[in-house]
Amino acid sequence: MEFYAIITGDIVDSRSKDIREWLPQLESALKDCSDRYDIFRGDSFQLMIALEKSIESMFYLKSRIKSMGDLEVRMGLGIGTVDYMDDHIKNSFGDAFVRSGEAFESLHKDLIAVRSPWADWDELSNIMLNLCVEIANRWTVNMAETVSEALRFPKANQQELAKKLQRKHQSQVSTELTKAGWNKLNKAIIYCTEQLMKRC
Fold first, then answer.
1. Dihedral sign from CA coordinates of 102, 108, 111, 114
2. What is the pLDDT of residue 122?
3. What is the DSSP string of 63-123?
4. Are 104 and 41 in contact (CB under 8 A)?
5. What pLDDT is recorded for position 21?
6. How far is CA 118 from the centre of its chain?
7. CB 115 within 8 A of CB 151
8. How confident is the model at residue 98, as a pLDDT?
9. Burial class of residue 98, CB neighbours in 10 A (0-12, 13-18, 19+)
10. Are the C-beta atoms of residues 43 and 32 closer than 8 Å to each other?
11. Which of 84, 93, 97, 157 is the most core-located residue (most Cβ within 10 A)?
């Protein structure tokens, strides 16, 4: 049985911001994650993502949106099968889409939720990832930019990241990643991903 990962999300309070500023950034971030995505109703989106990249991608999207200032994003990740695949993701159907929608609808004050066929993984991941979100909610624009580049280029060292970010000193990248809680957050992403892949 083949499993797929679907992320359903939207931009929080998008109407108070100029869509011309954040929509190109959202589209660029989605393209970085997957070539299978849709943006609809102006501020909502859905994408199909590789299982092993699904959790990492949620935090990449969060970091890209946070790097624009006071914008925020909510996301529900669903893991499951796909019965029908349309050219447009939003018109496709299957358990992965249903669970993604359910995870998204379950969000109240939380910004991230996951739902899969494995209740034990869901429970553990939702606890860990929401703690990670609490850390991420405190990111400044510079921290979010640095985290997004660290996620986008996982093999890059801090000197290379400084060059990509046009920071004068490598120590700036080190300081921003430390303040962003990057090491702890990345460990949680890797752990939840490993536990997911064991079940698939």
1. negative
2. 98
3. HHHHTTSS-EEEEEEEEE--SB--SSGGG-BSHHHHHHHHHHHT-SS-SEEEE-S-HHHHH
4. no
5. 83
6. 20
7. no
8. 97
9. middle
10. no
11. 97
**Residue type at 80?**
G
DSSP string computed for 13-42: TGGGS-HHHHHHHHHHHHHHH-S-EEEETT
The stretches in the chain having pLDDT less than 50 are: none
Cα(90)–Cα(127) distance, integer angstroms: 28
pLDDT of residue 108: 86
Instruction: Specify the length of the chain in residues.
Output: 200
Return the closest-CA partner of residue 180 out of 133, 130, 144. Answer: 144
Q: Quick one: tokens of 194?
A: 């490993």
